[in-house]
Amino acid sequence: MTLQRFIAGPWPWLVPAIGMLALFRAYPMAHQAWLSLTDMRTATIGQARFVGLDNYRFIFTDASFLGSLGFTFTFTVGSVALSFLVGFSLALLLNRPLRGRSVYRTAILTSWVISSLIVGYMWQMLLNESSAGVVNGMLRNLGLPAVAWFSDPSTARISVILVDIWRSSAYIMVFMLGGLQTIPRELVEAAMIDGASAWQRLRHIVLPLLSGLITIALIFTTIATFNVYELIVSLTGGGPGRATMTVGYQMFRTAFGGGEAQGLGLLGRGAAMGMLMFVFTLAFTVLYLRVGFYRRGGRA
Amino acid sequence: MRRVTSARPRWQREGRAQLRFGLDHLLAIGASLLFVYPLIWLLSASLKPAWQIYRQPLTLIPDGATLEVYQRIFTGTPFPTYLLNSVVYAVGGTLLTVFVGLVAAYGLSRHEFRGKQTTLLLILMVQLMPALISAIPVYILMQRLDLFNTQIGIVLLYGAVSIPFGVWVLKGYLDTIPKELDESAWIDGAGKLYTLWRILVPVIVPGLASLFIILFVGKWNEFALASVLLRDPSIFPLTVGTYMLLGPDESDFRLTAAASLINIVPILLVFLALQRFLISGLTAGAVKQ
Predict the structure, then answer these.
(1) ipTM (interface pTM)
(2) What CATH number should be reported for the domain whose range is A68-246?
């Protein structure tokens, strides 16, 4: 290829993007695979020893890490399923001819613009078990017992899931609302004339038409949920004990959880945890490509 | 409005419809409150005098509101600096993504070439990988590039991580513009860069606005990478500064509430100002045919 043809072609347009992605995204991902096989610490950057699969052997025999992995799965399944249910219900509600529905939509979407870190702080206060906690205050007013939102391990796990549902259902709502609005009104009305009940219309018309979009929404949410970190930092700090630690939280703690400036951060071991998140995400990415990319003939 | 005839008498139909209508509103108001009440409560907690935080019964309206805690934050901590840094990182990162993404989107939208599908596929795969997964290798990379603990490092990184999303969304918008528009500009002697900037960009302004707000929200709220890559408090963004102020579990409700609101209010205003562009962008990349 001559230089002239190269310049007239697409590549000069793509070079800045590909260059930045190669440096800041692709290279780190590849580097992480190597790091996970070394004993690199923050003090020994660049002079790490190759230790084979030691890091993996360690994390997969470490009860604390396995506990985090277990909770991460529970959290992901619980949060994704319920967020979808809540988000889709909200979308169905706001898809009805409701006056002022854009106001409702805006109100619900405010939860989407708040950072996970702040959502965590906010709900830590709302669900606080001291007498300043407003949710327990409301329960008391209704004559109900106060709930140990964060001090009881099993309840704390549920609390984290509930807060994550609050955080992520608005996005699903907007996503599904976009899909619902593509369904021709006549189709639903025809079914009504034929006497189909609301449930039948949902089950036999709406859900089949939106199945592709639903799968995509579930995959996006699953990826974001599995890699949760920031929400945990401010909501529970992984506690009580280690009850609400997730893989992402463990990764950051292992590598940067204090002492990394003194060289004590275990980058190699953290990278092994990062690889685990990578592999999980990759599996869902491949799934996404199968439903979202190839089915449309490779066109976006 | 639905025009469905049914065998029920008219009065009964209308009664049911009205009941249904009222129920819909009731549900929608309930749901909206669930999402907005926590913010109202934050405002209330941040304005209460200290002695009212634990006073029973808990009230939403403070008894004699005070800005004391805001004053404490803005004069006693580097929050004004954090605020400025957040603006720099969010605006800088967003603009970088939009420019680099726009140029790449033009290349992909206006050229057919071998390897185009593969390029698109790779971009999509990177898009779905959350950046925080690679926090550790990025930490090492930034040290090696001498970008560790620098503002420019954060802007470059924030700009880079969302390029796939930017390319994807902008290519979608550019694809909707007929190529004849470009060609008529070329006949008039315009270069490609001029065509992109003066002919195509004005057409996709709504798309750019929606991309801008989605990216801006993401960068304004980013905590994980910034917390690892910055050491010097004078270059912390708000999220990291807030964490430094509050720690993992701050028990001063007024301080926590006020610091949280300082994080939320600017982004909320941007969101309210630009939200009419937002909806199309949030679903772009998935719904776009």
Answers:
(1) 0.90
(2) 1.10.3720.10
